[in-house]
TrEMBL record:
Keywords (A to Z) from UniProt: Signal
Organism: Caenorhabditis remanei
Domain F-box: 8-54
Bilayer-crossing regions: none
Record's protein name: F-box domain-containing protein
Record's signal peptide: 1-20
A Pfam short name: F-box
Source superkingdom: Eukaryota
Amino acid sequence: MSSPMSSPFHLLRLPRLVLCEVFKSLSIGEKMKLSFCSKKISIQIYNARLYSQKVIVDLDWPGHKIEVYSENYRDSFEIPVYPNFWKRHNSNTQQFSIACCAFLSAIEHLLKMFQCKFSTHIRLNNSDLYRPAISMLFDLQVEFKRISIRHNGSENENLLFNQISSNFRLVEYVSIYSVYDHSFRPVFTSWPQNITIWSSDWFTLEYLLACTCSRITLWNSLLGNKDTDVILKNWKAGGFSNLEYLCIESQNITNSGELILGMNLRELDGKAIQTDDGLKKATIKTYPESIEISVTPFE
């Protein structure tokens, strides 16, 4: 005797609060797939967005995909974006335009479904692909977990770099790999929480004194002992009010250079100093060609 056919489950007939709990219990992938079943279901998921997971959205432009992670990285879902497929059906449209539209559509859908914080690696020489999506996200005041930037020096790249840097206040961590055009003077009208610059020979003392980041790491810097002395004196006088950590790696930081706060690097290593108002202290560690400053408030 055959078993009776099970009756369909009418999800949308559940009470609103129960339905919200159901949506909250779904994985990222389950919620994504369910949102494409019908317009009614997608609207219900959109309405439950504020009760949904907070996710990190990694925009992988070169790989033509978007990866969505839970904050603890235990749950993930990948959204492929196929510009070649769409180009075959839109032969009169440039491929980068189709790729950009695909990314924009996917991003807009994710923003409706989740509380998103974005992450991306930007190659500025592909600015035609990046600019529309990045501009849209900044216009919406969307937060970024991380932005990594690789800059090769063209005029278009300079324009996009300055557009992005003017919105750094929305970014938790910025990593800049290179600025090869030494005639280019990047404009920082806002700063991220944390910044790492891998080839920071262009990042002058003037830039550093204006920087409001909490954590600053400069590799391959041209700053030297004299600059470090200015930095520490500025901090003692109340500058760098947000600073928690500063690391400068430079061939110009040496034991044979000028004194820093009246000490050479060996004397400075392990030294604890404090601000003039006595509210903060900093511990200094020195290494061959580098110095680290860790700041803590007095209890």
